[in-house]
Amino acid sequence: MSQRVKIKALLQSQQTEIDVTVKGWVRTFRNNQFIALNDGSTNNNIQVVVDFENTDAALLKRITTGAAISVTGKLVASLGKGQTVEIKATEIEILGDSDPEKYPLQPKKHSLEFLREIAHLRFRTNTFGAIFRVRNSLAFAVHQFFQERGFVYLHTPVITASDAEGAGETFHVTNFDLDNIPKTDTGEIDFKQDFFGRPTNLTVSGQLEGELGAMALSDVYTFGPTFRAENSNTTRHLAEFWMIEPEVAFNDLADNMDLAEDMLKYVIRYALDKNADDIEFLTQRLQEEEKQKPQNERSEMTLLEKLQFCLNNDFERLTYTEAIDILKESTPNKKKKFQYPVEGWGTDLQSEHERYLVEKHFKKPVILTDYPKEIKAFYMRQNDDGKTVGAMDILFPGIGEIIGGSQREERLDKLEQRMDEMGIPKDELWWYLDTRRFGGCPHSGFGLGFERLVLFVTGMGNIRDVIPFPRFPKNAEF
Ligand code: 4AD
Ligand code: MG
Fold it and tell me: What is the residue range of 313's domain?
């Protein structure tokens, strides 16, 4: 048996007149003669030419869209248009039939909505093939970036007893029989009898545990799934998403911003190099989509230009207070004011405000810092003005917030005071406070929403299309 060769490698082969074996899924079969075969290594199919006169008719019938086949034959220069090489098949084996009457993926363009309903099969389309190869490269690049800089990859727990963001958006974890939940004498749920002997939930962020690691290993990062039971019925939210959270001892907010900007540029550049053909495909795809829109709503830049622009420009850095001043003076366009008027200092920015700053005002990625402490988490370092904290949010065109981070409050008294003010239980977080008791030091970190990064790099419009199996309200089918 000859070795299976990936189609991507074959299409780039300088050699012809060699015997090869490929395995993949039939995209189309034309005139009983030409198979377009794909194995997911690239969006380009290899053409297999079938000697139909000398092939069993029963076998020919089984070469249908979606079937898995193995082909052995000679790689030859192709005379046909659109490909340089093709395979003259000498042997075809059906590995898995696919009933063409029932196969949901027809060789035509399907809507993304429809493909979401068949998420178990959508990997087989060009669009999703490209998206998930880009996603893979971005994940690899994240590790490479941190590993090159001597960071330690820290695995933080998925099941925790804390709510790092203090936003109360957690999913409970229990092994109770839901039809028979033990109660105490006073009628409350008796968590002592639960698996962990206390209430637990899925993690919303690995930050708090990451900070513990940084207080010994100096430079750490996590990269794992996080879960939020918030309203995720938007094109930017998922109930289960992957987050990358570096945490660095001795870094201040400016170091934190530099690290985040370097990382984003590094991973985007990596994907552009590694997945040039996929990004080219996605750029074309988006151009087609743009053509459906009225002229004045079309994007000024192609996807490729957008990515390059992001690499070649410094991100704009300004404070929340400066941003509010800009927004108060702005009217997004002549007819329409902001749906949520900018009330003034102290209110949280809506995504329309963030997008205005990035897409209309600065026209580039923006880092906003020093938010009012009231709208940020308890662990952020308080500034000397008594009103703001050393927070930073990175806003991207078409996405809005892609990173949230901060310098952490390392001063025990300030941290405890803030926790009291915000009603965060100090006794439950005794281990977190211990780091401030024993050798605490200035440190900073941030969280990058991995799917939002994939959204940006692929140019897709809905976060549900950049994770293989999206979790959102009323959806956990696959
Ligand atoms: O701003 P967030 O809530 O920050 C934290 O969780 C910090 N503990 C991170 C840290 O400092 N270590 O979330 C970080 C990022 C957001 O900027 C966004 O990109 C993404 O996570 N994110 C989501 N992505 C998809 N679906 C959701 N529901 C998300 N919520 C946050
Ligand atoms: Mg945030």
Answer: 126-169+204-465
